[in-house]
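Sample 3 of the quickstart, ligand magnesium ion:
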Amino acid sequence: MGLDYLSLLNPSQAAAVMQIDGPCMIIAGAGSGKTRVLTYRIANLLEKNVDPFNILALTFTNKAAKEMRARIEKVVGPEAKNLWMGTFHSIFARILRSEADKIGYPRSFTIYDTQDSKTLIGQIVKELELDDKLYKPNLVLGRISAAKNKLISVQQYLNDPVIKQDDEAALRPKIGVLYQQYASRCFKAGAMDFDDLLYQTNVLFKDHPDVLNKYQNIFKYVMVDEYQDTNYSQYLIARKLAAKERNICVVGDDAQSIYAFRGADIQNILNFEKDYPELQVFKLEQNYRSTKNIVWAANSVIKNNQAQLRKDVFSDNEDGPLIEVLKAASDNEEGKLVAQSIYEDKMNHHLSYDDFAILYRTNAQSRAMEESLRKLNIKYKIVGGLSFYQRKEIKDLVAYLRLTVNPNDEQALRRVINYPKRGIGDTTLAKLINSAEESNHTIWEVVSNADKFLPTRTANPIVDFAEKIKAYTAVAAKEDAFEAAKFIAKNSGMIEELYADKSIEGLSRYENIQELLNGVKAYTEDPEREDKSLGAFLQDIALVTDADTKDAQSEGEQVTLMTIHSAKGLEFRNVYIVGMEENLFPSQMMITSRADLEEERRLFYVAITRAEKKLTLSYATSRYQWGNLRSCEKSRFLDEIDPQYVDFKFSSGPAGSPMDSAFGHVLERRSNLIPAAPRKTVATKYVAPSDFQPSDTSNLQNGQRVEHPKFGFGQVTKLENQNGSVKAIIQFEEVGEKTLLLSFAKLRIV
Ligand code: ATP
Ligand code: MG
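Result:
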């Protein structure tokens, strides 16, 4: 045995770890070791010689699964690699990959991302000549998604009088028809959206008892983390899989249920007790993560919710500092205060930037934070937001790859049929789509037989395009994902097109394509991957969740910026919750009822309980929203924290500086009272001189100082020769490290 884990658990945790047969549930407060129990419970099963292939553990993010696996590996060794672990979506995508043909999909089905789904809905709305202001893709997709998560089929949707009434009352009677069209178009394209991965798994298990039986025999032990945020579709999958052996263990915290808007149903906890009367319930009450002040503050907030299972959470940790509240005059000043506070804390307490997280309610709030962090030269990473895979050039290449694996993929086909330009105009495309609809063929069937549907001149470029895709499919059948992707990137003309664009943006797009290819290479070179095919790679990247992007950009110490939703389950030494204002947090859009307000409050509870040692809250009294400066009122949530846990310091500011009387327990700091951090702060953006002339850099040396028209001054720290082209790594004074290809970069040696 690699690690004596029982000594790392308290008696209730150990009891939950040792209980391995029969159903079990742990609903306990934040930071009480639920995830830890799940981890060591799996280690314990493996030590009792349960085959890792028989254990299924469902986590909230892929990253959480990875971490859990690594911990288990420390106890039991490499056997841990064979565990079935991952998010509901990734595990059941994997299962559908080998079973989809039974429900009429190709095994090489495409996974549509949210953007694909919205585009498709937009297209259908247009084709049906519906009002696109009434039938906004986002809204329609939301309705369809809610239906799927409740396992409401198209037929049920169309026939249900209550749904009909609802949609009619909302003046959107055609949602059912849109659902029908959308589902049939996805099916024809051999595509599943995210909700389908769960919905179709349910269909598979319902219509094919033999398949269900097979997986019931495989998954002898089922475990679910963050159970409070499962939706009905997920609940049913877990219940079906565990129906035979009844070895199911779920852990969660009703106070942290924050995904009701996506169909998560707290009812699943109550159902669990009904489904398994022989259930064993474990209570964990001690919080090991946070200081007493943080735990008490969190308790005092959640107490305001009526719909909460009562539980007492306590901490044996130190009291720790009180919770600090920063008040700023504007969002920009808020950013400044937070960045300075991080800088000072890091210096004064010898911390790493990895110890800090800034959490916000909406992604848009990151901008002001980013700006201030950059000015203090503080490195940061944003989790979620526009991820690498959402960039245009990456989506273009991925569309080619998707088409290669599944030529019926309508959204991919539309994206690249005329990119790079090959003279296939919108009218021709419209004709193709029409022909497909009329003849009941898929668009690909029409495209690959274009000469039968269109006059020769129009058909020619389409026939060429179809030939290309067929050739790619042949390559992908023989080669691994990397060889196939490289071939496709070149042969499609994409590389040439991007290479020709010598602007900085063009260069960065070109580098992104290289980066994607590097990613494919790393994927195929990973010795633990069995399936190195292009299809497997595409599935992997389609399932990257918001919270998973954290690792992708990690380099050195960095402050983490993310939404509170993505922070679930995580912990950081010092946490900043910013934008504590009415209409922002609680969000204006979300508080039309008590239930909504309570969900926002649970979100606040999640945010508070991410902090280990120090929690700081901030708000601004004015903020730009939709381009207008608005004055803001501080959040009601601030007043809900028992004031004894909040820092009570007066600003040493100018005499008579107004105190917020209703809010005495506030540390008021004004950014101009805080001495500027000693690091270089650049307030003005570098502007290149108008006579900027790049020099010849063929003899550039390490250590040389250079000037770049956009990035300003910097020093060469490394030169690398890569297949004949030289890459320079340059530490720029304002923008930090950049890697540039010398043949493109306009540099002046100074
Ligand atoms: P959340 O509700 O946020 O998901 P959780 O209940 O899953 O939290 P964990 O993340 O498992 O809690 O544990 C919180 C922290 O406390 C972790 O750093 C964990 O290692 C630590 N911890 C848990 N139990 C113990 C223990 N018995 N002794 C020491 N540390 C512990
Ligand atoms: Mg947890």
